[in-house]
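ESCALATION

Customer reports they have been waiting on this structure for their group meeting. Please prioritize. Original submission:
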Amino acid sequence: PDVIIEAQFDDNDAEHGQDHLQDMLTDDIKKLSLDTGEKGKAAGVTGVHRTKQDDGPKVNDPKLLPDEFLQRTAKVVYILEKKHSRAATGFIKLLADRNSELFKRCAMFSPVDHRVPRVYVPLADCPPDFVTKPEAYSQMLFICRIVDWKEDSNFASGQLCKSLGQAGEIEPESEGILTEYGVDFSDFSPEVLECLPQNLPWVISPGELAKRRDLR
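Update from on-call: job pushed to the front of the queue and completed.
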């Protein structure tokens, strides 16, 4: 009970599910127990005996520990404003556990930006031949929008919005970045274009130059 194990998720954990991670943690705990037991046997062989007096006082009350040994913790209680667009660029792949019910319904979306969580997306949003030929889409960029993230799940839920194209090409990469930051890059409407000078070439009139500061 005095051992704290920290774990970090990676793509393998996402594909195998939470049960896989729990098995890994269980194995780690068993290894720690075995190591402790072996050290105790080794101490007995060498003739080193420890008594309760040698162990010294054990501090079980965190209030008695110095501040440098304490880790401050907190929790989010309210979201004031959603700054992120909830859209991300990334790749899709099948889940590793083919026998699970989740494999039949969802695929895993891995964002290029690692600050964005991985997302379960419905297979219905994926290309029709994705399940039979997933390798054909291994380098294909997609836009995914997060729609939900349950408190008891390690991964968010989302929907695939668009296929951008091959990774590494300028146009798909640029469109993905603009979409993530919520930049409208669509063509200007005719109403907006009518606001521009129609008589070309257009030059600044002397009257405008007289009342403006020239920063050229």
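Sent to customer with the following note: The first strand starts at residue 87 and ends at 93.
Escalation resolved.
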